[in-house]
Amino acid sequence: MSVPFDQLDGEIWMNGSFVPWKDAKIHVLTHGLHYASSVFEGERAYGGEVFKLREHTDRLIESGRILGFEIPYSADEIDAATTELLKRQGFADAYIRPIAWRGSEMMGVSAQKNRINVAIAAWVWPSYFDPEQRMKGIRLDLAQYRRPDPMTAPSRAKAAGLYMICTISKHAAEAKGYADAMMLDWRGRVAEATGANIFFVKDGAIHTPDPDCFLNGITRQTVIGLARRRGIEVIERAIMPEELSGFSECFICGTAAEVTPVAEIADWRFTPGDITRRLVEDYAAEVQPKRAAAE
């Protein structure tokens, strides 16, 4: 049995100080728990360096602003705390989770006077999916819930509340033997997986949904850049489910998932091919610290 996350060893940076892992606690009446007034990031360190740390930190701060609160630390302070935490934990390769939330000073929908808390944790987290199955292509179900209209939810923020339907959808998929689920948006268009962006290949070009109602992931932007660097055409557009039968390859990407081939989405089938394998390799090379080149 794996160790529960609240019982791991080490330290967590919380509100400006490093505290023992077991002491990084909040009260049961914390606003972020009751009303989802919380934003977070998912980051990975490779070889002791966090990939695109500043981009993640900037997005954390912006997500807080979208939810109506100011994170009480600068990007420089958060980056420095992240780097120091990684050293104190003694990790070269790790997953990092910064999170900011409204505290327990007021309880109710309105929480204007609540303290904005910030914490950063780091732990060793290998592949998000089964390593043996990953390169063969994972299987996705089609989620019941859909990504909402951006006029009804703050879709540009990496906000905790937006992941409620993701957890429900992933649990439902896993119960049926799938690894994850693909979500449509409120219009019935293809959107993303529960925690990763999605891409398709047809006639040598990559097609991916336009992120107008879901997160334009940092990994997504990286993969698009890698593909274009290789001269592969990337088309960002609306994709309807009935088009999926015309695609030959499919893959998802995200900080946790990295680049993961997909073999099946509900009744649609794909074969991991050259473009997918190339981007798996290119992304793996891209995230590694470029110390040799710098020297």
UniProtKB/TrEMBL annotation:
PROSITE patterns noted in UniProt:
AA_TRANSFER_CLASS_4
Reaction(s) catalysed by this chain's protein: L-valine + 2-oxoglutarate = 3-methyl-2-oxobutanoate + L-glutamate; L-isoleucine + 2-oxoglutarate = (S)-3-methyl-2-oxopentanoate + L-glutamate; L-leucine + 2-oxoglutarate = 4-methyl-2-oxopentanoate + L-glutamate
Which keywords has UniProt assigned to this entry? Amino-acid biosynthesis, Aminotransferase, Branched-chain amino acid biosynthesis, Pyridoxal phosphate, Transferase
Q: In which pathway does it act?
A: Amino-acid biosynthesis; L-leucine biosynthesis; L-leucine from 3-methyl-2-oxobutanoate: step 4/4; Amino-acid biosynthesis; L-isoleucine biosynthesis; L-isoleucine from 2-oxobutanoate: step 4/4; Amino-acid biosynthesis; L-valine biosynthesis; L-valine from pyruvate: step 4/4
A single Gene Ontology MF term assigned here is: L-valine-2-oxoglutarate transaminase activity
Per its UniProt record, the required cofactor names are: pyridoxal 5'-phosphate
Q: Which domain of life is it from?
A: Bacteria
GO annotation terms (biological process): isoleucine biosynthetic process; L-leucine biosynthetic process; L-valine biosynthetic process
Q: One short Pfam family name for this protein?
A: Aminotran_4
- EC no. given is 2.6.1.42
Q: What class of enzyme is it?
A: transferase
Which InterPro entries does this UniProt record tie to the protein?
Aminotrans_IV, Aminotrans_IV_CS, Aminotransferase-like, B_amino_transI, BCAT-like_C, BCAT-like_N, BCAT_family, Class-IV_PLP-Dep_Aminotrnsfr
Q: Does the keyword Amino-acid biosynthesis apply?
A: yes
* Membership in a protein family: Belongs to the class-IV pyridoxal-phosphate-dependent aminotransferase family.
Function per UniProt: Acts on leucine, isoleucine and valine.
Q: What is this protein called?
A: Branched-chain-amino-acid aminotransferase
Q: Say which species the protein is native to.
A: Fulvimarina endophytica
Q: Which gene holds the coding sequence for this protein?
A: ilvE
